[in-house]
Amino acid sequence: MRSIDRPAAQAVRPTAESVAGASNVHLGDAQSSPDTPPVKAAAENFSFYYGQFQALKSITLPVYEKHVTALIGPSGCGKSTLLRACNRMHDLYPGNRYEGAIRLLPDNTNLLDPAVDPIEVRMRIGMVFQKPNPFPKSIYENVAYGLRIRGEKSRSVLDGRVEEALKGAALWAEVAHRLNEPAFALSGGQQQRLCIARCLATDPEVLLFDEPTSALDPIATASIEELIDQLRQKVTILIVTHNMQQAARVSDFTAYMYLGELIEFGRTRQLFVNPVRRETEDYITGRFG
Ligand SMILES: Nc1ncnc2c1ncn2[C@@H]1O[C@H](COP(=O)(O)OP(=O)(O)OP(=O)(O)O)[C@@H](O)[C@H]1O
What we know:
It is a single chain. The protein is an alpha/beta fold and 289 residues long. It has helices spanning 16-20, 79-86, 118-124, 139-149, 155-168, 172-175, 188-200, 218-231, 244-250, 268-273, 278-284; strands spanning 39-50, 53-64, 68-72, 96-104, 109-110, 125-128, 206-210, 236-240, 253-258, 261-267. The strands form 2 sheets. The protein has a 6-stranded mixed beta sheet, with helices on both faces. GO terms for molecular function: ATP binding. Residues 41-284 form the ABC transporter domain. Pfam families: ABC_tran (PF00005). Keywords: ATP-binding, Cell membrane, Membrane, Nucleotide-binding, Phosphate transport, Transport. It comes from Aromatoleum bremense.
């Protein structure tokens, strides 16, 4: 397996237009301008099939560095399928098929390349699921897990990284005195922050959130949203949400999907206030979906 953490000598940084160029996607005011952030990842004519069924149709989408991009759209439009493709979750099932590319910058690696090790992809691109899914291990071992897989054995390095990740997930103050307790002893909101800490421990470049607050109460939801707001300073975030208020609150850019296609992509404010496509307007005003 080829490791993907070495930048290629001639990495190409796509712009919003070069990413969207071959498609009909409306970029709205997300087009390149002096204040457009660099592209961190990009789907390029990406299609996905569950057996004979085509769930995603030639998606072309830039994901901007250290910003939050929300994927919205009615149930079954392919949001989770796209998110899962970004860290090769679909590899686990036979019959699934990718076409096109999902590139990670600056090395311009196609994450779907079979020569790229999916385990390494998951270190660079962490994923947080709808329901918190800690391992049946201690709080400490959950966070240390990815580092141990990477071969880290030094207790002092592990201790330091576990503390740093728990602080990054705004959980340290609540668990510092109980690191050896089972992760399942934590509340749902704490377990979700533990899962975020588990991702942070391996220093991911991108974090994927698949409806991360749908199983949480309003207070735990607010703490996860606050955390996302802090995390964007150091990591690129792609989030699937059914909750349009949440998309409006937490994201900088929004992509509206329908029936496996990307209909519109733009800055969140523009997409919600002044969408270019009629389909987007119908969805966000509740006339459809
Ligand atoms: N394992 C699977 N096998 C076959 N088809 C699937 C599978 N998973 C999803 N699909 C289909 O792919 C399409 C996209 O599903 P996906 O879960 O990505 O949509 P979504 O937009 O995330 O929906 P929701 O908002 O309800 O979670 C749907 O038509 C769904 O029925």
